[in-house]
Design a protein that fits this description.
By secondary structure, this protein is α+β, with helices and mostly antiparallel strands. The protein is built from five helices and 19 strands.
Length: about 325
């Protein structure tokens, strides 16, 4: 419901680096002179992103976009991003801006998410990333962005985050000890090797985060391109369709789905139709890279996850496979 809270448990792992890239746009130094730009490289859930302080980036939007694209290695016609820190998939081609909150007494930090293109020079501010939201609290802690009182005690910490793309509030809860987020030996996530910090996210009043309504069309079920679909805006706008209506298994690995161009084209067509139906874009306009998401729903079923563990049918209520333009990933609910 619109007034409820949604809770997500995710993980993060971080490394730190100073990335040096050359800006060639007007107003920059010599076009072959690298410009040092501080940046931190974090994993949140099953995504990774470059996290910047906004004051370290150019104020001019075009120069800022140029730097972000160069740092991630886009555009790259080979889809590998070897000249940057991306890895050829959208879940690893992202950036975040984090700073002390200036305008909201209910928030400690402001967080802006940016989806970056791979083959094209796309810089998309249209929506949020739930995975990277898990990294923002620990990042703010380690960067000293929180009030001094937050550093006086150890144990469970709460960071209040204003998500600027959607205008919503998120509370991040995680443990700290000896001055840093705790890496829990029992905290793991399927599809990610190694360990991380357990982070619980509370999305406060997530309904209508982008469109202003939990059900943007006013209906629980709509028809899109001849298929029954549910269009829901909760933290991020999403189009839900039944996997069987697309002709695929809801438990199919993401790679199997992405290897079928016809299926991917149909999913993108549904995503586009959903964006128009919920008022995100007008008919014929370019749909943002980040939203809406598309989710494939299926009945409970036994599934072998990427880590090799077996999730039995009786342990889940349904299977949901979700993604933006690409790729898709599997969630058991």
């Amino acid at each position: 419901m619109a007034g409820s809270q949604q809770t997500l448990t995710s993980l993060l792992r971080q490394t730190h680096l100073a990335h040096r890239r050359a800006l060639t746009s007007s107003g920059s130094p010599h076009p072959h002179t690298p410009v040092p730009t501080p940046v931190t490289y974090y994993r949140g859930g099953t995504s990774r992103a470059l996290i910047f302080h906004p004051t370290d980036l150019p104020r001019t939007p075009s120069l800022r976009s140029t730097l972000l694209l160069q740092a991630i290695g886009a555009p790259d016609p080979y889809s590998r991003q070897l000249n940057g820190l991306g890895a050829g998939v959208s879940s690893l081609s992202k950036a975040c801006l984090v700073s002390r909150s200036q305008n909201d007494p209910d928030a400690d930090v402001d967080y802006t998410f940016i989806g970056l293109g791979i083959e094209k020079p796309e810089v998309d501010y249209a929506g949020n990333c739930g995975n990277m939201s898990a990294a923002i609290g620990p990042y703010a802690w380690e960067q000293g962005l929180l009030p001094s009182t937050a550093y006086k005690e150890e144990g469970q910490v709460t960071v209040r985050i204003r998500q600027t793309n959607t205008g919503t509030l998120i509370h991040a809860h995680f443990p700290v000890a000896r001055g840093q987020p705790v890496v829990d030996a029992s905290t793991r996530i399927d599809g990610v090797s190694g360990l991380g910090t357990p982070v619980r996210l509370d999305f406060l009043q997530p309904g209508g985060a982008k469109t202003g309504r939990l059900l943007p069309t006013g209906r629980a079920v709509d028809e899109l391109l001849g298929l029954r679909a549910s269009i829901v805006d909760a933290a991020n706008p999403c189009v839900f369709v039944r996997a069987q209506d697309i002709g695929i298994r809801s438990t199919a690995p993401p790679g199997d789905i992405m290897s079928q161009p016809g299926v991917m084209a149909r999913l993108e067509a549904l995503r586009t139709a959903g964006a128009v139906a919920m008022g995100l874009v007008k008919e014929g306009a370019q749909v943002p890279r980040v939203v809406p998401k598309i989710a494939l729903i299926g009945p409970r079923a036994e599934q072998i996850v990427l880590g090799g563990a077996v999730v039995r049918a009786g342990d889940v209520d349904l299977v949901r496979e979700e993604g933006g333009r690409r790729p898709l990933w599997l969630r058991h609910l």
